[in-house]
């Protein structure tokens, strides 16, 4: 099973996160299938590769709680529903 989750990067006390598609059995810093976004909680910046995220969600990937919150703020799930109705 594939999950969309955060992968920690950056230095000590200055964490930034990559949003990655990764196998459930992999550890947090393990090898990812694809990088689909970026999140900086300190500067509150987010970059999301929306087509890649929608593709993984269509294939059955499950976002973690934090990734779900970040995605819902970017209204990705509205786009997912619009694509499903077409």
Written description of the protein model:
The longest helix has 10 residues, at 76-85. The chain has a five-stranded mixed β-sheet with strand order 4-3-2-1-5. It has helices spanning 50-58, 65-73, 76-85; strands spanning 2-11, 14-23, 34-40, 45-48, 62-63. The model has no long low-confidence stretch (mean pLDDT 88). 33% of the residues lie in helices and 38% in strands. The protein has a single domain (2-85), classed as 2-Layer Sandwich (S16 Ribosomal Protein, Chain: A), CATH 3.30.1320. Strand 1 and strand 2 (14-23) form a beta hairpin. The protein has 86 residues and is α+β, with helices and mostly antiparallel strands.
Quote the beta fraction: 35-45%
How many strand units?
A: 5
Please tell me the overall pLDDT: 88
Distance between the termini: 26 Å
GO molecular function, one term: structural constituent of ribosome
Protein name: Small ribosomal subunit protein bS16c
InterPro entries: Ribosomal_bS16, Ribosomal_bS16_CS, Ribosomal_bS16_dom_sf
Subcellular location: Plastid, Chloroplast
